[in-house]
Design brief:
The chain has a 7-stranded parallel β-sheet with strand order 3-2-1-4-5-6-7, with helices on both faces. The chain is built from 8 helices and 7 strands, in the order βαβαβαβαβαβαααβ. It is of the alpha/beta class and 259 residues long. It has helices at 18-29, 41-55, 69-79, 102-130, 151-171, 189-202, 206-215, 225-235; strands at residues 9-12, 33-38, 59-63, 84-87, 133-138, 176-183, 247-250. Helix 1 (18-29) crosses helix 8, helix 4 runs parallel beside helix 5 and helix 6 packs across helix 7. It starts with 8 loop residues before the first strand and ends in a 9-residue tail after the last strand. The longest helix is centred in the middle third of the chain and has 29 residues, at 102-130. Helix content is 47%, strand content 14%.
Length: 259
């Protein structure tokens, strides 16, 4: 399918690896020029060079912490008249409800709610003025069905979901869509960070921990960054203009819900 976004300018946060990189690769394959962001410059530059070589698009990199005012200002300066924004940030660490204090919640909110909101507020007005834009927020299946050990993520990402629900309906008339893409378990570093403690706690190998988790997913496996990126690229395409304010699961059927 031709996505109709050749030549569009896309900002992809946390895109040096994992799901963010999958999104950047899919958008580049559709012909988008990229502004890629991550904290670590080495992995970011390597990912950008691979995308340039594979797809022949322009890729600008910004190695900065987008959750900080200075880092976000640097990224926005590079973004220019961006047509597409993919918000993404690593999730807070797992734990128990009694382990977290106010500062833990503030950090989670900064990363997974307030930073994406700030990026939306900065870039969407320009999209509206030009009559076209796409925003995809990478959140989590936990906004549909909370994950007990991920209480920080549950709270922060659900807050962003509520913001998007209202905001998306205010900007859709100007040709701008905002949607959330909700990953389940994918074969990324995040999965390893979650599977490792399980293996240690239960005295099993990491491979066994993965196999047990995969068995709980109707698809019978972890997702891939490539198929997640393809879903993101479709939401950014010319074909997705009537999809507004939605929370789209990409989880292999793991979230057991009717709606």
């Amino acid at each position: 399918m031709h996505l109709g976004i050749n030549g569009k300018r896309a900002v992809v946060c946390a895109s040096s690896k994992g799901l963010g990189l999958g999104c950047a690769q899919a958008l580049a394959a559709a012909g988008c020029d990229l502004v890629m962001n991550a904290r670590g410059s080495e992995a970011l530059e390597a990912a950008a060079e691979a995308i340039r070589a594979a797809h022949g698009v322009t890729v600008q990199t910004v190695a900065a912490d987008v959750t900080s005012d200075a880092g976000r200002a640097e990224l926005l300066a590079a973004a220019g008249d961006a047509d597409i924004l993919v918000n993404n940030a690593g999730g807070p660490p797992p734990g128990m409800w009694h382990d977290w204090d106010r500062e833990d919640f503030i950090k989670a909110l900064d990363s997974n709610m307030l930073t994406p909101i700030a990026m939306i507020k900065a870039l969407v007005p320009g999209m509206m003025a030009r009559g076209w834009g796409r925003v995809v927020n990478i959140t989590s299946q936990s906004v549909k069905a909370p994950i007990p050990q991920l209480g920080l993520s549950n709270a922060a990402r659900t807050g962003l979901t509520g913001y998007v629900a209202g905001t998306s309906r205010q900007v859709a008339g100007k040709g701008v869509t905002i949607n959330n893409l909700l990953p389940g378990i994918h074969a990324t570093d995040r999965a390893e960070a979650l599977d490792g403690p399980v293996a240690e706690r239960e005295g099993i190998s990491i491979d066994e921990a993965r196999a047990r988790r995969a068995a709980t997913i109707p698809a019978g496996r972890y997702g891939t960054a490539e198929e997640f990126g393809a879903a993101c690229a479709f939401l950014c395409s010319q074909h997705a203009g009537f999809i507004v304010g939605q929370n789209i699961l990409c989880d292999g059927g793991a979230t057991n819900a009717t709606i």
